[in-house]
Write a structure and sequence with these properties.
alpha/beta, 9 strands, 417 residues, Endo/Exo/Phosphatase_dom_1, TIM Barrel, catalytic activity, globular, two-stranded parallel sheet, metal-binding, S-adenosyl-L-methionine, 10% strand
Length: 417
């Protein structure tokens, strides 16, 4: 059967499934149920619908799919590589626009997340992605959210057009190291990817400057740009990944670096691992990302929390791991310490620190006051001083990790029958 003759629903199923490896949004899992047999009402199938989260915590539903899963590249880790034996499909830009509008009018989604394999060449594919967004914005005055995955080796002029229609653009670095990219994605070039990200950064900066000077200057990628790294496909350790992410934030002013744990794919290349890394590793990298972005840690300090192989511990979070290694920085006086020191206390989040700074202007804080601001006061006790608490010899205990680390068995009891 020719791809063009496949029904829209069948192509949607193929291309929505092919997009699941993009990690820039997350979907919740549930049992598959539908009412197609005429019984009941509702469905959990929702092909192509995923969920992302706004900075204020709102959950945003997106139509997430590929324009096509045909690809002229042969990246070893990609299920859609040209040598892969997968069912292929393709949408035209107008079809994606029609689907987006149809889903939006039925209140299924609030926006579009669109990526693509490379068909013909990078310029042609990028033109198709931009055309999809242009149809939505210009012909239908679509005001929902649009996220476009751009192609780094496409013509810079075409890539820059993406920011005129998309809220966010992203250019994937794919792998943390240049050596890993050369080995697993020989068609891609790390220098070209960095160059494309820098070009997009300059376009965003120029547009912001223009809007300050000219009231009617167009908005350009107002949600900025992001990127994605695959974790566990090559030999890069956590310290290398954290350092690479920190460099990307500094050089290209990224809004987010997303991590995607490598998942074994059908007919996989022999150079790939046979097993996926533990998902908790991906989680620890996200926690490290937050330490750098919101808690004042440098990438070098996060790397200090890793073991001698450069891997972050899986049983405790990186902030706690750092505190256990550098106990000389503790205890921290809750009534006198600056914000920077409070942010390094395990168990205290940014909101809790802000509340402590506000409350201590009016009264002297006791341990019970701080207990209301954290999930586990037991976790922070060894690392803080309060009006009625001083951890005498606590931070020097050899078994401190056992005291403050999460009790997995106790947590499981919450779900016991």
């Amino acid at each position: 059967m020719q791809v063009a003759h496949k029904p829209v629903l069948e192509r949607l199923k193929i291309l929505a499934d092919a997009a699941k490896y993009d990690a820039s949004c997350a979907s919740s899992g549930t049992a598959k149920r539908d009412s197609q047999n005429g019984k009941g009402i509702g469905s959990t199938e929702g092909m192509g619908i995923c969920h992302a989260y706004a900075p204020d915590g709102r959950c945003i539903s997106l139509l997430k799919l590929l324009l096509t899963n045909h690809c002229v590249f042969d990246c070893h880790y990609c299920v859609n590589r040209k040598s892969s034996n997968v069912e292929r499909a393709r949408f035209a830009p107008q079809e994606v626009a029609d689907l987006t509008l149809a889903f939006y009018k039925r209140n299924y989604i609030e926006g579009l997340f669109l990526s693509s394999g490379i068909i013909r060449n990078s310029d042609h594919t990028m033109e198709q992605l931009v055309e999809t967004a242009r149809i939505l914005r210009k012909e239908h005055d679509f005001r929902g959210y649009i996220h476009l995955k751009t192609i780094p080796d496409a013509d810079p002029g075409i890539v820059r057009q993406a920011g005129l229609y998309a809220d966010r653009v992203s250019i994937n670095v794919e792998l943390p190291t240049e050596a890993g990219l050369n080995r697993l994605a020989p068609d891609k070039d790390a220098g070209v990817i960095d160059g494309a990200m820098n070009t997009m950064k300059q376009a965003i900066v120029e547009a912001k400057d223009a809007r300050k000077r000219f009231r009617h200057a167009p908005r350009y990628a107002p949600a900025g740009q992001s990127t994605q790294m695959i974790v566990g496909a090559d030999g890069a350790n956590d310290a290398e990944i954290v350092n690479r992410a920190s460099t990307l934030y500094g050089q290209h002013r990224l809004r987010r670096v997303y991590y995607s744990a490598f998942s074994p794919i059908p007919d996989a290349s022999a150079v790939l691992p046979l097993k996926r890394p533990p998902l908790i590793r991906e989680h620890r990298l996200y926690q490290s990302d937050w330490l750098i972005r919101f808690y004042g840690f440098s990438s070098a300090e996060v790397a200090q929390a890793a073991d001698h192989h450069g891997m972050l511990p899986l049983d405790i979070d990186p902030k706690l791991a750092w505190a256990l290694k550098f106990r000389e920085h503790f205890p921290v006086d809750l009534n006198r310490a600056p914000k920077e020191a409070l942010l390094r206390v395990p168990g205290l989040g940014t909101r809790g620190v802000a509340q402590i700074l506000s409350a201590r202007r009016h009264r002297v804080l006791r341990l019970d006051d701080v207990a209301k601001l954290t999930v586990s006061v037991a976790k922070i006790k060894p690392f803080v001083v309060a009006a009625d608490w001083r951890p005498v010899l606590f931070t020097d205990r050899a078994d401190l990790k056992n005291i403050v680390a999460p009790d997995c068995n106790r947590q499981l009891e919450l779900f016991a029958a």
